[in-house]
Amino acid sequence: MPHAFFLGLLGASSLFIGALLGVYWKPSRIISAAIMAFGSGTLLSALAFDITLPSYHGGGAWPVLVGFLTGGGLFNVLTRYVDRLGGFLRKPASRRRFLFQRRQAETSAVLDEISHIEVMQRIPPSEAQAVIPLLRPMHAEDGDVLFREGDIGDWFGMIVKGEVDICKSGQKISQLGPGEVFGEMALLTGDRRSASVVARSPIDLYRLNREHFDDLMTRSPHLARALSRVLAKRLQSTTDIRVKAEKDLQAWRRMALDSVELDLSPAEEQEMIQSLVKDAAPFAIWVGTLIDNVPEAIAIGMSAHMAINHSFLLAVFLSNLPEALSSARGMKESGTSVKQILSLWGGQVILCGLCAAGGSILQMHSSPIVLSLAQGVSGGAILAMIASTMMPEAYELGGGSVSFSTILGFLTGFMLALPEL
């Protein structure tokens, strides 16, 4: 067991080294990508020869199959939970993926509310998706004056829930409800408001300000035509048209959601991150990385009774280095002190050593079938980690060039494993 503990510390020592580098140094994207891709290749080789084969020889195909599926499933469930707490910051690729999913969720919520607005239904989904980030939610109570006749027209509204009265010279001339728009004429003509708008019930709406409206009118001719049609024929629509619109609604919504892109400036991305990061984020980053490393440490412990497996130790060491570097930078960006960062990563090295010792105990006191299943669970978690974090991260940073580093890493791991096969 002490031997397994030492090997676990050795494999995890790059976590502390990477954290130390991440605090004081920011390597180029190409260097980070090359290290991570090389580590992915060596880890894939070690996974095939040092975990999968022993698991198969010890218990046959079923423990491998069940173990890999279980390990991969557990890894994905735990990773998603930790990401929601702020662990997504540990790597640029996972950060981008999480922000994309967040943007999709926010867009989906807005689409649910504006999909019944006639103007939006007349806009192609790709153009509708571009409008959504510019809309601002607004609420008014019964009797609130949204704007007055003669005011400068600086926005128009889309009613989601509730009703408004359109008044001219103190007299009510019409009433608008959910799905309708108001205030667009002043924006189209440049004139002052021709009427007042007063909430006749609690109302929820989205507003589009003039600075965004003018730009959208240039980029979206469909929006201009839709608003012109509303002006000319605001309330005239046949029953057949309404039925067809309801049938097309879900298809339009799906297409609009599929058009969502993560196109944020660095400032917008940082603002979005700051709105998501809570006090638990540094700990979540640390836990997320621990989840990535525990299966490796256990696998080291379960094979510690044999000769030192150089290929697997090298793979674990190399895969931990860029991950800890990136994670430590994410923790520093979220406001964690250098002392706390280094303490957390030093503690994680010790925990990995303890996990390796636990793997050694498991190996000594388990039947071949149980040991084979445990190896499969570790292997499935490691493979899920490579597929969902390491390889996407390497490609995100280095593009197609990482394929050569991955191949080189795999061949290096294979050559080191040959004497042990």
Structure described in brief:
By secondary structure, the protein is of the alpha+beta class. It is built from 16 helices and eight strands.
| Silhouette | elongated
Taking the sheet with the most strands, its summary is: 4 strands, antiparallel
DSSP strand count: 8
Main sheet: strand order: 1-8-3-6
Helix content, binned percent: 55-70%
What features would you describe in this structure?
- By secondary structure, the chain is of the alpha+beta class.
- The protein has helices at residues 2-24, 29-59, 61-85, 92-114, 118-121, 125-131, 184-189, 210-219, 221-232, 239-258, 266-276, 281-302, 310-333, 338-364, 368-398, 402-417, and strands at 136-140, 145-147, 155-161, 164-168, 171-176, 181-182, 196-199, 203-209.
- The chain has a four-stranded antiparallel sheet with strand order 1-8-3-6. The chain has a four-stranded antiparallel sheet with strand order 2-7-4-5, with no helix packed on it.
- Strand 4 and strand 5 form a beta hairpin.
- Helix 2 (29-59) packs antiparallel against helix 3, helix 2 packs across helix 13 (310-333) and helix 12 runs antiparallel to helix 13.
- The longest helix has 31 residues, at 29-59.
